[in-house]
């Protein structure tokens, strides 16, 4: 094989064939708008065939192969060093792939075209799904906006009606007070002293009547309903945006603090799994002022007083557990409510007991509606907005959220009285 036979590009650019220079296949000069696969012209094929015959018949010609061309042929894996045939299909290389920048056979072109079409269909499907999701979110936001506007309008009408009621009440009270004052002044100025002594009881009754006129009427408080600015949809979108960030499963440094573990619990060696002990161990752990001695509680090792934090607890099949946050000053000793999670002003927890879910704080229990029992419970604490949010990690569904002006650093807090719970990283 001569040097002119090695590549189509060499043949097409050979000075012996100036009339076929226009058929040169140069990948760098291809227009991006041209087809990915370009069939080689018949003249190029004929030229290749002619060159081959000439080389075969001329026995005196020295057969030398360009090292660069041979290396290119070998590295491409498409055609061998002896003939320009597709290694995979053993067919003539009569197509040029603009994507791979190399010669291919018609079978390769059909295969690559099918793959390209499949990828285009997949990309089109993905684009349609994204557009559908964006459209659904847009519609949901518009509906939520309309709902909030209607709720605000109803609240404005209620407050306006309350103001009108209060105004009418105070106007009537002023009229009554004026009339009572006039009667008392008339009685005091036109009644003889001896008669005043006899009429003392009547004057006292009129004064008592006048004092009660200015009492506020029984009406709804004149303040806007906080629910007008509350939107679970917006909270859910905000939580989803945060959870899709680089810290979706929280800090790897978050573990349970073994100093706080109750004697009713067992802590794993990696400080991530808590197991409830059905029988209290005979030997109590060493005394530690940080340890809970009565309730099955434990605190986390991460103190939070700024930024945004989130972590996930695998609750598995546990039928009784609590997950939340508390102040570091939470009482650790005794069996009173001051050391019981969710039953004091220093702790906020989501509780699951006897198949029911609830949010507990200051001893008040707010029942939660959970469609599907979660195997994991996530917590998201955003310190700047003073927001604590409980969510289901697999679907990012918001279970409950609370806004509170936290006045001191918070620690993760957990309790379990059935099976085990584990911190996930």
From TrEMBL:
<protein>
    <submittedName>
        <fullName>LOW QUALITY PROTEIN: B box and SPRY domain-containing protein</fullName>
    </submittedName>
</protein>
<feature type="region of interest" description="Disordered">
    <location>
        <begin position="1"/>
        <end position="30"/>
    </location>
</feature>
<feature type="coiled-coil region">
    <location>
        <begin position="127"/>
        <end position="165"/>
    </location>
</feature>
<dbReference type="InterPro" id="IPR006574">
    <property type="entry name" value="PRY"/>
</dbReference>
<dbReference type="InterPro" id="IPR003879">
    <property type="entry name" value="Butyrophylin_SPRY"/>
</dbReference>
<dbReference type="InterPro" id="IPR043136">
    <property type="entry name" value="B30.2/SPRY_sf"/>
</dbReference>
<dbReference type="Pfam" id="PF00622">
    <property type="entry name" value="SPRY"/>
</dbReference>
<dbReference type="InterPro" id="IPR001870">
    <property type="entry name" value="B30.2/SPRY"/>
</dbReference>
<feature type="compositionally biased region" description="Polar residues">
    <location>
        <begin position="1"/>
        <end position="13"/>
    </location>
</feature>
<feature type="domain" description="B30.2/SPRY">
    <location>
        <begin position="233"/>
        <end position="425"/>
    </location>
</feature>
<feature type="compositionally biased region" description="Low complexity">
    <location>
        <begin position="52"/>
        <end position="65"/>
    </location>
</feature>
<dbReference type="Pfam" id="PF13765">
    <property type="entry name" value="PRY"/>
</dbReference>
<feature type="region of interest" description="Disordered">
    <location>
        <begin position="43"/>
        <end position="74"/>
    </location>
</feature>
<dbReference type="InterPro" id="IPR050143">
    <property type="entry name" value="TRIM/RBCC"/>
</dbReference>
<dbReference type="InterPro" id="IPR003877">
    <property type="entry name" value="SPRY_dom"/>
</dbReference>
<keyword id="KW-0175">Coiled coil</keyword>
<dbReference type="InterPro" id="IPR013320">
    <property type="entry name" value="ConA-like_dom_sf"/>
</dbReference>
<feature type="compositionally biased region" description="Basic and acidic residues">
    <location>
        <begin position="16"/>
        <end position="30"/>
    </location>
</feature>
């Amino acid at each position: 094989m001569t040097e002119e036979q090695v590549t189509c590009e060499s043949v097409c650019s050979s000075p012996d064939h100036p009339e076929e220079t226009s058929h040169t296949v140069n990948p760098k000069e291809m227009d991006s708008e041209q087809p990915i696969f370009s069939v080689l012209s018949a003249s190029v094929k004929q030229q290749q065939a002619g060159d081959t015959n000439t080389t075969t018949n001329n026995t005196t010609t020295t057969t030398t192969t360009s090292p660069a061309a041979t290396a290119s042929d070998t590295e491409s894996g498409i055609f061998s060093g002896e003939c320009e045939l597709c290694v995979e299909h053993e067919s003539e290389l009569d197509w040029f792939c603009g994507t791979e920048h190399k010669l291919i056979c018609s079978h390769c072109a059909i295969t690559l075209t099918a793959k390209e079409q499949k990828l285009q269909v997949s990309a089109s499907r993905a684009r349609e799904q994204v557009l559908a999701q964006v459209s659904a979110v847009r519609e949901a936001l518009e509906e939520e906006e309309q709902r909030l506007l209607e709720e605000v309008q109803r609240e404005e009408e209620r407050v306006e009606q309350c103001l009108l009621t209060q105004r009418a009440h105070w106007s009537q009270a002023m009229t009554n007070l004026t009339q009572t004052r006039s009667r008392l002044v008339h009685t005091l100025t036109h009644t003889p002293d001896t008669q005043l002594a006899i009429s003392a009881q009547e004057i006292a009754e009129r004064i008592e009547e006048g004092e009660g006129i200015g009492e506020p009427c029984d009406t709804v408080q004149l303040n806007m309903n906080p629910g007008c600015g509350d939107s679970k949809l917006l909270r859910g979108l905000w939580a989803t945006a945060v959870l899709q960030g680089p810290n979706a499963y929280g800090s790897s440094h978050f573990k349970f603090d073994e100093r706080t573990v109750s004697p009713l619990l067992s802590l794993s060696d990696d400080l991530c799994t808590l197991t409830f002990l059905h029988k209290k161990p005979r030997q109590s752990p060493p005394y530690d002022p940080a340890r809970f001695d009565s309730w099955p509680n434990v605190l986390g090792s991460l103190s939070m007083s700024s930024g945004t934090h989130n972590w996930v607890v695998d609750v598995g099949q546990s039928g009784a557990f609590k997950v939340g946050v508390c102040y570091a000053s939470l009482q650790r000793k005794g069996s009173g409510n001051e050391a019981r999670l969710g039953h004091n002003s220093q702790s906020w927890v989501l509780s699951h007991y006897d198949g029911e879910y609830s949010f507990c704080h200051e001893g008040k229990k707010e029942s939660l509606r959970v469609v599907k029992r979660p195997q994991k419970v996530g917590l998201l604490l955003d310190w700047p907005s003073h927001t604590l949010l409980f969510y289901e990690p697999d679907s990012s569904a918001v279970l409950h959220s609370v806004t509170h002006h936290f006045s001191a650093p918070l620690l993760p807090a957990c309790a379990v009285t059935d099976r085990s719970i584990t911190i996930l990283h």
